[in-house]
Amino acid sequence: MTALRIDGKALARQVQDGISKEILELNNKLGRAPCLAVILVGDNPASKVYVKAKAKNAESCGIDTIDVFLPGNIDNKMLEAKIKELNTKPNIDGILLQLPLPPGLDEYKALSAIDPALDVDGLHPINQGLLLRGEKSLRPCTPSGVIELIDYAREKLGLKRDISGLQSTVVGRSILVGKPVSLMLLERHCTVTLCHSRTKNLMEECRRADILVAAVGRQELIKGDWVKKDAIVIDVGINRTESGALVGDVDFQSVSKIAAAITPVPGGVGPMTIAMLLKNTLESAKQRAAHGGKVT
Ligand SMILES: NC(=O)c1ccc[n+]([C@@H]2O[C@H](COP(=O)([O-])OP(=O)(O)OC[C@H]3O[C@@H](n4cnc5c(N)ncnc54)[C@H](OP(=O)(O)O)[C@@H]3O)[C@@H](O)[C@H]2O)c1
User: Fold this and answer.
1) Cα-Cα-Cα-Cα dihedral of 98, 232, 12, 296, to 10°?
2) CA of 197 relative to ligand 1 center, distance in Å
3) Which of 28, 60, 210, 291 is most buried as measured by Cβ atoms within 10 A of its Cβ?
4) What angle do CA 262, 265, 269 make, to 5 degrees?
5) pLDDT tens figures, 109-123
6) 3 state SS of 98
7) Do 6 and 263 form a contact (C-beta atoms < 8 A)?
């Protein structure tokens, strides 16, 4: 059997079409297009590519973007001052700080300087705290995309949306992916096992999973014999091989012979991360329109 290849590009297109329609309606209330400010510190080549892709997709949905390029040698104070200045601009509905920051800068401090109402990456401690409590908040984009991909795969497989009681294993415990995706799966009533570099017998933990999410950053770590038959496998990892190709944390060839569905790399989680960023920007702009243009 060959697993269903979960087409993240197609799902992202669907989501972005919906966003475009909502933006047409919102523009009248807001008196302008929603606007996303993207901050890039330094000249990390991969980050430059991601920032470009975000701006291109934003514009295709009718979201304006402002690029804020800062030199790699700035200090935390200067970065936080710039973020605080952007917080006060009435025409900016979302602020994204592209990670990773150059060495020497404190990501947690910089992320905490973003107004939580504009935190479209969902990484401010207030938004992460609200997620922990299961309250409405701007949620991290990649984990939100992972949940949408699971729902999409289950629909394509003819399974019900309800995933309560299913065993899910998440490999990786970053604040960007592993921890928030675990909380979101828990919110959907899965039984969640969260694994990391000190996990004993990772293979067994993976093999128990009905839903397996890999967010590790280790090229093709998860092999076919690590996966339960008919599992749904979401591969968040992006790794560059020696030949320059992009591969995930999951060995697509062997796992697709066992799993019911699997996301490819590229073309799986990546496009959905961008779609969720644009959805958060729309949400933030809607909140602003509802409050007469003010940040809540
Ligand atoms: N597609 C997208 O849009 C998207 C978005 C974000 C990230 N990513 C990709 O997803 C991957 C993870 O990103 P991240 O930011 O979460 O990375 P990260 O902050 O480096 O975290 C990696 C996690 O993996 C764990 N880990 C490392 N080696 C392991 C091993 N051999 N066995 C088990 N666990 C191991 C680490 O454990 P410890 O905590 O114990 O160190 C850590 O919790 C990267 O490849 C990144 O590029 C993709």
Assistant:
1) -60
2) 10
3) 210
4) 75
5) 999 999 999 999 999
6) coil
7) yes
